[in-house]
Amino acid sequence: MFLVYFLFFGLISAEAKLQGPVEVLPNPKSYEDFEHQNKGCPENSECDKVMGLQLSRWKKLLSSLKSSGFTEEKKAQLLDEFRSKYGIPVDFYTTIKSQQGFKPLYFSSPCSNHNFKDDSKKILRGTAFIKGIGKEAAIIWRDQAQMEVPIGELLRPQPVRVYFKESPVDYFLPLGDQPLYLTGEYVYVLREDDEVFYTLRVSRDGEWKIVPTELSRLSSREERRDNAKCPDEKTNSEVFKIDFCKTTYDEKEEKSVITRMHQGCAI
After folding, report:
1. pTM, whole model, 2 decimals?
2. pLDDT for residue 20 is more than 70
């Protein structure tokens, strides 16, 4: 019996020596540490370290604003300073070719009409840090450098047409965004990210500015928006298959105008 115990404990001792010292792994700092190999990147996205760092910097700002108790004026000031320096995260449609240039993070599009068998032709949903979108190009910040990316195959923001009395005016907005109200030439969009709301002002030339959100007027402005029949125009876009219209109140002219938005598909 003594021999059996001796052999048993001898085996345990030998196995422990083979295994070496036991290392205690550090606890993950947050749930985000499980989401992506590059910290800061969204789960299931194709996203590199640069975009992860830029997103982390943006999230850090949003987190500080949520706990600050700042006025809307101060929040808008800090957000616009960030936009002016680094841009803000904006969604648009793109293709895999964009990875040879400004390298946005991307997901597969949920639209069946975007998912071609040929991967090079697939329409993807991309995100980049954008300072503004003009008629011809978007101003993008990536990896400590500013660049202009032409509107087209590599970057397709949402076209939004406002039917002013004089003539229609086209704007480019992030995917899914809708104008909340107008003041003459300016379109105002209420945006939300990580429970932080802010108002983006867009000019006819595509200049962006984050302005204070008038919380007391949100409900009344939303109530002035309503579904509307779109003017008879055909949109022959392979990317944006769905268009719809709403009335948007122009506070300068004191009247409602029709605004046409676009979606990649009916989701």
Report:
1. 0.85
2. no
